[in-house]
Amino acid sequence: MLTERQALILKVIIDEFIETAQPIGSRNIAKREDVAFSPATIRNEMADLEDEGFLSKTHSSSGRIPSEKGYRFYVDHMMSPLQLSSDEVRLVQSQFDDRMIEMEKVMQNSAHILSELTQYTTLVLGPEVYETKLKQLQIVPINKQSAIAILVTDTGHVEHRSFAVPSEIDHSDLEKVVNILNEKLVGVPIVYLDRMIESEVIDLINRYTSNFQKSYDLIQKALFNHQTTSLYVSGKSNILMQPEFNDIEKARSLFNVMESEDQIAPILKTNQEGLKISIGHENEMEVMNNCTLITATYTLGENQIGTIALLGPTRMEYAKAVSLLDLWSNHMSQSLYRWFND
Amino acid sequence: MLTERQALILKVIIDEFIETAQPIGSRNIAKREDVAFSPATIRNEMADLEDEGFLSKTHSSSGRIPSEKGYRFYVDHMMSPLQLSSDEVRLVQSQFDDRMIEMEKVMQNSAHILSELTQYTTLVLGPEVYETKLKQLQIVPINKQSAIAILVTDTGHVEHRSFAVPSEIDHSDLEKVVNILNEKLVGVPIVYLDRMIESEVIDLINRYTSNFQKSYDLIQKALFNHQTTSLYVSGKSNILMQPEFNDIEKARSLFNVMESEDQIAPILKTNQEGLKISIGHENEMEVMNNCTLITATYTLGENQIGTIALLGPTRMEYAKAVSLLDLWSNHMSQSLYRWFND
DNA sequence: ATTAGCACTCGTTGAAGGTGAGTGCTAACA
DNA sequence: TGTTAGCACTCACCTTCAACGAGTGCTAAT
What confidence score (pLDDT) does residue B41 get? Predict the structure, then answer.
């Protein structure tokens, strides 16, 4: 489809543009050592590349900038997998030591470090809790009127929520119900808790007084109606540093989206394993039309999948971002496997 | 110090400037119904006010804008305590119902609602945990190599941290240590835990095998070396909406600060009860020299004090911000008292 | 097929001039 | 003596214009 020379020129333009954010002219390309043609030749090739849709201009006599199709081709066919510096690799490895053995910490830390390393915004979506199993249920009375319910999963996820305790309910009642629930429910996948309760536990509870029913209702409300999309975002303000967002209006609208979990979480949910790169208008959301989102999935056990993503301008350091994300998600999957699957 | 007429003019200028963010000219002031003087008179008064330092100009023939001293005078002597709309009052009241009975939720929700209501950035600093007391300690084993320690305080604060369990330590050992700790330490203020352990518990533990010592060390590490400044920030991007931050560089540097808990938390820590308003250069931090920070304290019990703050441009809607923050912190203190002090 | 040469395009910069909202000052007025 | 009308002046802002230069496309020579 593209001649070797065209590919070279396209690659040079994209590499340079990623670095400088400025349109690239033929003379500048010709100056490079790895390019042996005159500006005029390059101009001809660039005109062809523009006809094919790989490049575009900011105005009729400006240098060229990559189009989204250009980036797409670059990403699919030309990207040399950047060798990460040994410093970076070591830093990544050092993150997955003994301290990272709790999902919250892993995700928080991942978001933080990756945004530091890339200077892009990092989004980490926790694994769907559906496959995780109940490890323990616990009620801690705080005072006459309130108590805290704590649910621990086998992934080390701790969920807690306080609730009001009506005066007619005694703490000892709650305790008994919790005991029953623990007995029957430990080891049950969170997603089946509801069903399991229906079929096995309800009967048992009904044998006791009506207060038990009320206690159960309380706990049920406190813990099982939880929606737990755990989203961690770090380095939001990095996006401000990109010259693409010198226009404050663009920054504003993107920030509005990033502030809202509801809008971000769905974009990250994916079934496709491995890396996925969405360039510009490939992103459904309009405010992200001048952004690239690279998502990678990590696994926890067999079916649980979480997502980790980098959000930057379309003019992204693809090679570095991809390499880092790949390295990270692999380490993360391995590390999680070590910790939660034996 | 100021004549009545000067005060009126100053107030009008500040009110108008807060609304429009534009320098105010004498003609515009004269047009207002509550001002009965000619532009020339007003100009004379404005010149005097400028000499006194209450006003300044953006250039030699521009209208006046309030100086920091002007805002200070306004805040100290002239601010009419805005009657909040009944909608707003109702909204605030409705926030402190049965669902708000857990510190994390209270703070998170406070930050969120206040930033929505004011369109400024809201910062909430949790109460120092020093006075809170241990309610319960709990260890939940996750697998052979890891366990989660959970600490619940009498304020409903849940702290959890996972830790690696060396192979030579048995879970039953951990359990026994936890039992001992619970027996001795429930009800002890968090800040005294260390001392209490030294004096009372250590002996007890030393009577048992050395494994107990190791178990204890583990738990100690996992739970008691926690630094728990709980800071919640909401509406960071609101600051972008203010025309003061159309200059993207200013926005960038302020964002950098807001992203870092370490820099924000100290500013909020205060002993002074009640409201405090820091205008412009009254803020120590340089990036906040064109901002106003209004902090209010709330109490939980006798000595525990937390802070809730609004951060906006110096051209802030002081009356509204102050009224809201006051209303909120009072409700919050009352609500917390109801929940955690009986 | 490649490239040198050249006319052309268009964004950027800076200077010049006009406009208008604002001021300070002076002199007239109540 | 305090207030106000009048007027000259200032300065940010906008528009226009010309010069500049980095870049292009096209043509003709190599």
Answer: 96
